[in-house]
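User: I need a structural model of SnoaL-like domain-containing protein from Levilactobacillus brevis for a docking pre-check later this week. Nothing fancy, just the predicted structure tokens so I can convert them on my end. Input:
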Amino acid sequence: MNQKLEIIEHYFKLSDLASSDHQALNGLINLFSNDAVVEGASGIVADNPTKIASFFENFFKDNQELRHLCRIIR
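Assistant: Understood. Predicted structure tokens for SnoaL-like domain-containing protein:
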């Protein structure tokens, strides 16, 4: 599997745990580079590491029951 697919797979695994596991939340946040930009469905734009961390902390606080269905085809 190529590196991009591995990162995507890791992201979804961590995101399913992040609402109840602080280590998983930090691991998910650390997947993003320092120059990443995350844009939420509500229009919120997180354009630096501090804002990205805050975005995901709030997102997983508000979405405690979140589960993804993701299948990586190799």
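Before docking, keep this in mind: The radius of gyration is 12 Å.
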